Amino acid sequence: MTPSMKSSATKIVALIALIGLALVPVIGSRAMVQDLFMVLTMLVLALNWNMLAGFAGLVSVGQQAFVGIGAYGMFAAVILWGLDPLIGIVVGGIVAMALSIPVAFFAFRLNGAYFAIGTWVASETVRLLVAQWKALGGGTGTSLPKGTTKDMFGVDVIKDLIDGSSSAAADALTYWLALALAAATLLAGYMFLRSRMGLGLQAIRDNAEAAKSVGVDPTRLKALVFVLCAFGTGICGALLFIQITRVTPDAAFSVVDWTAFVIFITVIGGIGTLPGPIVGVIVFYALQRTLADYGTVYLIVLGLIGISVMLFARKGLWGMFSARTGIDLLSLRHPAPRRP
Amino acid sequence: MSLLKLDNVSKSFGMLKVTDSVSFEVAKGEALGIIGPNGAGKSTLFNLITGNIAPDEGAVYLDGVDMTRKPAMSRVQAGVGRSFQIPQPFTHLSVFENLLVAANFGGGHHGHAADDFCMDILDQTGLAGVADATSGSLSLLQRKRLELARAMATSPKVILLDEIAGGLTEGECVSLIQTIKSIHASGTSIIWIEHVLHALTSVVERLMVLNFGKMLMIGDPAEVMDSPQVKEIYLGIEV
Ligand SMILES: Nc1ncnc2c1ncn2[C@@H]1O[C@H](COP(=O)(O)OP(=O)(O)O)[C@@H](O)[C@H]1O
Ligand SMILES: [Mg+2]
């Protein structure tokens, strides 16, 4: 296959997958819609974390700060300002982006493991502050007012479309938003990495000193990625908690749910590769389905698999597959122009 | 006004004074050679000019602008391009992409113009055949050529070349000299650290000798090479 055939084949497969997923609320069960909603939102978080850790070398374990503040931003928009939750999603993204600036200011002074710890400390600080926010329930949290999600913009139309209840329609709406967000995040990530900034980022990843010596400013590029990923993560947090409808500081700023699982997904799928998080989230979901009844054993198995992949297949399942077969989907390479 | 000026630049690593009150100027379009024994502080001098290392004392000017506190990336954008003595390619990027980064960020070239600009340099440096190869897979000689090519891609006003001729065959050396002469002919200033003296002296207009971090001498290459001091220190010949 020529590269252009391969790329059209990729596009066709992606389009079929997208259409298939888009049809789920129409033809699938509600449980399936809810399950896949979680899968898609985890994918969004993983794509963002992969961009940070896999491409910008920013190993953050504080991304729950942006999930949490995104969720609280959305709740504030709905409860305090009476806005539609869908507008609340945008508010959540913007608030997360605003928060990322002081976090970056603090954490970017630190390197490696200290950066990771610094982001976690920042997140804990924000969690403690939010727990003081009485208007949104303080430490015990709060719920969206009854009927909020059923009154969301678009639910009526969807209700007729899928011929179901208002809550099923609300689920379908959040599901489609998650699908759109996942697709947009993947596309934006791909386009960013293919751009000159993405090339600069890959140069920094290979050799930071040499990158500076050809004019790349590592701090500036990394800060840009950090802020953009906070925006994506915040939007995802807001969307997640529209579906969950109830928020507490502990749930919204959970390091296990929004960062540990996300790291697992990215690492087993293939950190620093674009298809990695997609593979990872599929494996994660399959494991969750098969092991969910075993309680803590489930977490132990996840941990063991994560460690084995880190030890024996450092580029993850996708990296291993790609190295064996030579298949490079969503390639970031810039081929040299052919000249006579 | 000179293009590049160093004013009493000093640098120590611990107790070791590696650069000792060095002052010199390079005019626009001039080619300066630097020689000196291993460990004399030649590469460190480059790092001080490019901003990879900060000096303890003294100042570095480009086009009359004080660059001493500017980070490496601003100096590249202002026109200081460099090669590393030990090649530092972006190993996961292709040869072409290595140049593309430099052209985009250092040289201010964008889009198709950047592509063409990089391909011209690859042609000129004999790397066009491996343009799509991962730079991590190159031989040492090819990596050295890539160092030169990548420095050229930053569109420098002054290009700093650190021992790029070592280990070349006679034929390769001739083509390298040709490439450097054509850089020179295009009006770019050159500072070239080199042990391969015949290559160096066939290009440069002035020669500097560095020993124990001190600038011993600077001037006409033939006169410098003839001086008893240089023969003794640099070539280890008792006079
Ligand atoms: N980053 C550094 N830290 C400590 N010592 C260094 C460093 N860089 C160079 N040196 C020392 O400085 C001296 C000069 O090195 P260098 O500038 O590379 O010399 P040259 O290029 O002339 O061979 C050597 O003794 C070297 O070991
Ligand atoms: Mg040296």
Structure write-up:
With 340 residues, chain A is mainly α. Chain A has two domains: 20-252, no CATH class; 254-328, no CATH class. Chain A has 15 helices and two strands. Chain A has a two-stranded antiparallel sheet. The longest helix of chain A has 29 residues, at 166-194. The mean pLDDT of chain B is 93. Chain B is an alpha/beta fold. Chain B folds into two domains: 1-79 and 156-239, Rossmann fold (3-Layer(aba) Sandwich); 86-155, no CATH class. In chain B, α3 packs across α4 and α3 packs parallel to α5 (140-153). In chain B, the strands form two sheets. A six-stranded mixed sheet of chain B has the order 6-7-8-3-9-10, sandwiched between helices. Chain B is globular and about 50 Å long. The interface between A and B is medium-sized, with 23 and 40 residues. The structure holds adenosine-5'-diphosphate and magnesium ion. Adenosine-5'-diphosphate binds next to α1 of chain B.
DSSP, total strands of chain A = 2
Distance between the amino and carboxyl termini of chain A: 23 Å
* CATH first level of the largest domain in chain B: Alpha Beta
Q: Give the oligomeric state.
A: heterodimer
Can you count the helices of chain B? 9
Strand order of the largest sheet of chain B: 6-7-8-3-9-10
Keywords (chain B): ATP-binding, Nucleotide-binding, Transport
Domain ABC transporter (chain B): 4-237
InterPro entries (chain B): AAA+_ATPase, ABC_AA/LPS_Transport, ABC_transporter-like_ATP-bd, P-loop_NTPase
Protein name (chain B): Branched-chain amino acid transport system ATP-binding protein
What are the main properties of this structure?
heterodimer, A: 340 residues, mainly alpha, 2 domains, two-stranded antiparallel ribbon, 2 strands, B: 239 residues, alpha/beta, Rossmann fold, six-stranded mixed beta sheet, four-stranded antiparallel beta sheet, 37% helix, binds magnesium ion
